[in-house]
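=== RUN LOG ===
request id: a7f3
mode: sequence -> structure
chains: 1
length: 382
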Amino acid sequence: MNHRERILAALNHQEADRVPVDLGGTTATGIFAGAYEPLKRHLQLALDRPIRYVYAHSDLVRVDEEIVTRFDADVSPILPEGTNVLHYADQTSHLDAGRYTDEYGVVFERPAGSPYAVVAQAPFAGCPDVARIATHPWPDPQDPRRIQGLRECAQRLRQTTDRALVIGLPGRFLSFGQNLRGYADWMMYLASEPRFVQALLDKALEIQTGICLQVLGALGDCVDIAMFADDLGTELALQISPQMYRRLIKPRQQALFAAVKRHSRARVFLHSDGTIATILPDLIEVGVDIINPVQPTCAGMDTARLKRAFGRDITFWGLIDTQHVLPFGSPAAVADEVRRRIDDLAAGGGFVLAAVHNIQPDVPPENIVSMFDTALAYGRYR
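=== RESULT ===
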């Protein structure tokens, strides 16, 4: 079985030859430079290759082919040099090192020593004026720069690798408002300013659907998985009530994912951190085929229970703890974690193993090796 066949079997809830694995296939299952450089030295691979980044403003790296091959990973991202569909930003908009403006007008800033950027200036900070939504300089969903080199990259990957191909697409709703309005005010506005919230979410749906259809039209049948990200949970509960999710977010997710499926055969992958078990039936209903990262340390996210309840309807992608086990455990503890998740989730397919999130700079290379080597050895179905 080749890599793509292995992934498709898992997504069809069939047992392949082994549990598929992912390193660097998506923007949520990659590795930061602080962990990647020690890993290269530890493996004595790709030492002559300079680090390349997924974003110009991030420490998230493009994993070299030698490393992907070493771990027999099953997924590759469609990511041309200089192009990023999910976080497209005009390079001339950089204000200074670690600070940039995205195409929506949100100014992000990376705190010193952090691989993550946070919102520094929100374009809709201030009064919740619905009229401002109509006059804001929104990005053009048909901007040709967004797909420059995209199809050629996908075709090249189809010809040179047998891996499943993933494209990252914009599909934020809760975090769309958090970025454009500011986290605290947006969370209050969800309850207090329904006209503004509905109008901004409708604009999010309009623009993001346009981008998705432009990208999928360019890719045609060269893509297997469409990845979206919108964090709905915290470690203890949802960020908003299930009722508010169903009223405000769910209908727009349903419209976006339905459009994607009308125009593509790609499976829908949703990255949503935290405690989200309460709305997993809703996510299945709106068309989510793959849920990531499935944080087993969060409340209500017991992996054996999730498999029993939802394992026939959705694929679990991720699972290996990046908060405690990977950075602080021994290689033996990492191996135990991998075996436990395989025991809970592998039966009948529907499981792709990866780190819960991008591998952080404090993760020792020995633990990364233990994670993937254990998965490849222990995750065999026959």
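=== NOTES ===
Residues 194-219 form the longest helix (26 residues).
The beta strands are 75-77, 99-101, 107-109, 118-121, 164-168, 225-229, 267-271, 290-292, 315-320, 351-355.
=== END ===
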